[in-house]
Design a protein that fits this description.
4-stranded antiparallel β-sheet, 30% helix
Length: 192
């Protein structure tokens, strides 16, 4: 059995969970590069198992969350071997300005399928997702990995890619702007 969180061996799956507002995330690390990812928004849930080491799900989540925090659409690709999944994060087509966006997961028979991001088989959809809630939940997952240490991450999870520390720092900075603060934090700042 592992004696500390920084040991280089995953002794069974490591399950990380985070929630912010209506968004719930679960990242399961099952061994060198392999894992699973689950998302829930309100009463809708989705889960992808057997995610391959060919992609770094944490890096994809952090990059997607940063894009959402910066009001940009994003794509998170998951390698399942031989197939693939893609989470598409974008804003609805209503034309209204909103912090709400949608998440759609599409499956593809071939991991390297040249089809567009949203041309596969629609597997799951979440509408009206608060972008800040999603970004804060992803940041919480990244922080949980950081508490175990970047060496732990590299040695047990992603030997190919280092921990996405610059992207996490950019996400943290984006979420620190007044627009992303909770109403309580905004009131506190206004009262100073």
């Amino acid at each position: 059995m592992a004696s500390s969180p920084t040991d280089a061996v995953i002794d069974g799956p490591v399950v990380l969970t985070a929630a912010s507002g209506a968004v719930r995330l679960e990242l399961t690390l099952t061994g060198y590069g392999w894992g699973a990812f689950g998302i829930g928004v309100d009463d809708v849930e989705d889960r992808v198992d057997h995610i391959s080491y060919l992609c770094d799900i944490l890096r994809g989540l952090v990059t997607g969350a940063l894009d959402v925090a910066l009001d940009r659409p994003s794509l998170i690709a998951l390698a399942l071997e031989p197939g693939g999944e893609r989470y598409v994060l974008d804003y609805d087509d209503s034309g209204e300005l909103s912090r709400l966006f949608r998440i759609r997961r599409f499956s593809f028979e071939d991991l390297w399928d040249p089809l567009g991001a949203d041309e596969g088989q629609l597997e799951a959809a979440f509408e009206g997702v608060d972008g800040d809630d999603f970004a804060h939940a992803v940041l919480d997952l990244a922080d949980q990995v950081l508490t175990r240490g970047m060496d732990w991450y590299c040695e047990t999870w992603s030997r190919i890619d280092p921990f996405p520390s610059r992207t996490v720092a950019a996400l943290r900075a984006a979420l620190a702007t007044a627009r992303h603060l909770s109403p309580e934090a905004r009131e506190e700042i206004a009262g100073e």
